[in-house]
Design a protein that fits this description.
Length: 52
């Protein structure tokens, strides 16, 4: 796993960083947005890739 491919996912509701994942920056030009479970909101919420 290359260090430059790591991205952090932030909950759009409570603004907490909940997940780390990878993204191929050459093939995927847009920022990731995934619906993931947030343990602080206690529900599935949209999580966006945050800037480093």
């Amino acid at each position: 796993m290359a260090q430059e491919n790591l991205v952090k996912l932030q909950c759009t509701v409570c603004k907490r960083i909940n997940y780390n994942t990878t993204r191929n920056k050459k093939s995927v030009q847009t920022a990731l947005e995934l619906k993931k479970y947030c343990k602080w909101c206690r529900k599935h919420t949209p999580h966006k890739e945050m800037k480093k």
